[in-house]
Amino acid sequence: MAIIKVCGVETEYGIQMLGVPDPNPITASSLLVNAYLSLVSKKVGWDFVDESPMVDARGFTRDFQLAPEVETHLINTVLSNGARYYVDHAHPEYSSPECYTPREALLYDKAGEEVLRRSMEGAARVLGPGQSVVVYKNNSDRKGNSYGCHENYMMDRAVPFGKIVSQVMPFFVTRQIFAGAGKVGTEMAYLPKEQVPFQISQRADFFEEEVGLETTLKRPIVNTRDEPHADAARFRRLHVILGDANMSEYSTFLKVGTTAIVLSMIEDGFLDGLDTTLETPVPSLRAVSYDLTLKRPLPLADGGTATALEVQGMYLEAAKEYAAAGGLASIGDEAEGKEILRLWEEVLSDLEVDPMRLADRLDWVAKYRLVTGYRERHDVAWDDSRLAAIDLQFHDIRKSKSLFYRLGQERLLADDEIEIAVTEPPRRTRAYFRGKCLAKYASNVAAANWDSMIFDLGEDPLRRVPMMDPLRGTADHVDELIEGCDTAAELLRALGS
Fold first, then answer.
1. C-alpha angle with apex 21: 16 to 23, nearest 5 degrees?
2. Which of 20, 116, 156, 368 pairs with 395 at a CA distance of 20 to 30 A?
3. DSSP 3-state of 239
4. 149: which residues sit within 8 A by CB, 6+ positions away?
5. How many other C-beta atoms are found inside a 10 Å radius of the C-beta of residue 364?
6. Phi/psi at 279 (nearest 5 deg)?
């Protein structure tokens, strides 16, 4: 039986500093995080003791050092909603708390946008006249650099990793037809500009391998990092790095929801008879991104071909059978699982008839309609710099400036629930314990990470509280306990008993 797909989204934001001579993106990112912390709470540091980015899911540990994922001297903190907010390389990154359902993952991803907006407002108060920091939820600086939007899903350790790779690969290559954020042009230097005037995905250009450990160089479609942030004997965390950062609520919900269902089917052996193996996944990834007709046949390993729509249709049909067999409990909410299936089918159907039907729901379609409309009105070529500017402005998270927010896109969330999620943690995962401890005992929390918290009671030694099961530490488990403990010392005594 598939386990609950506890999930989350990590977003590295693009950043631009205006009106500042020789702007430094690391300084700008640090300014943002510090500005937010000055508004909300005491800074609580991140505990790196359990970080193990060199462990590979294929059964070995790399003995050389990759480019560091996180510079530990940079700002790295935990928020009262259970999220992590920090400077990753030259970008501000918001990692959502552990979420119980795909819709909850969407909610806390959108809460992250609001955290960044408030960070910009805070930074504006300390910058000089005419100076500002602007944040974009995109994936490319158009100078050959890409920054990620990663997803995480809890899986059963007993499922062989090779099985996960083979059965999820075709799905990952093709899901961009509804999860892509859209992009004007390409950054593949060997391609003539006119060959790819617009593409579906912002990230497809930057992937070079099918399977691998790296996340910044030679990026793989399936990442092998084996860092469960939980009991490694029971759980695996599938770290998904190929997705685009989505502005659209529909795109994010479908991206996370369909992936959670596919991974559940893999755990339950429901895809063992489905053979959609692609002959060349990396070229196919780009082929799908470059094909706005969605009709390009992809070569399959068995000698046949299938379009991206057909591959997604095969996964959808399997998922409908899976649901009929009672297999959606692992999504966290069966009604939500059925809603994901309904939207998945609706979107694939509309994409087959005319993608423009989805201009009010999917990022890449909305952006394509926007830039083609501008081209037609002003008679400009695809390589005109104004189209690249429109592309960037689409991802501006300031609602008064963002082109996305001017398009009247369909919503799945209400503003008031996003407002609550900015400060309140999810109730059905261990993020609840982390967030509530931060809210109530911040002065005694020395540091935290995903699977533990360290308390400082003013005397040696520091006290570590392990949280090795993502489904423990929920509101049902600890709400009464935290309510009854006025101090961190009382809480630790109660936990010890």
1. 35
2. 20
3. strand
4. 9, 10, 11, 12, 139, 243, 244, 245, 246
5. 29
6. -70, -40
CB 9 within 8 A of CB 84: no
The answer to whether residues 181 and 364 touch, using CB atoms and an 8 Å cutoff, is yes
Cα distance between residue 118 and residue 487, in whole Å: 30
Cα atoms found within 13 Å of the Cα of residue 99, Cβ hemisphere only? 29
* Residue 300 CB partners (closer than 8 Å, separation 6+): 276, 277, 278, 279, 306
Rounded Cα distance, 314 and 271, in Å? 10
d(CA 104, CA 7): 9
Catalytic residues: 88
Q: What is the CA radius of gyration of the chain?
A: 22
In whole angstroms, give the CA distance from residue 421 to residue 430: 15
Alpha helix locations (H) across 131-199?
161-174, 176-179
Name the nearest CA neighbour of 360 among 293, 412, 414: 412
Residue 382 neighbours by CB distance under 10 Å: 16
Q: How far apart are CA 425 and CA 423, in angstroms?
A: 7
What domains lie within the chain, and their CATH numbers? 7-418 (3.30.590), 427-496 (no CATH)
For residue 118, give every residue at least 6 positions away whose Cβ sits within 8 Å of its Cβ, in sequence order, or none: 36, 39, 422
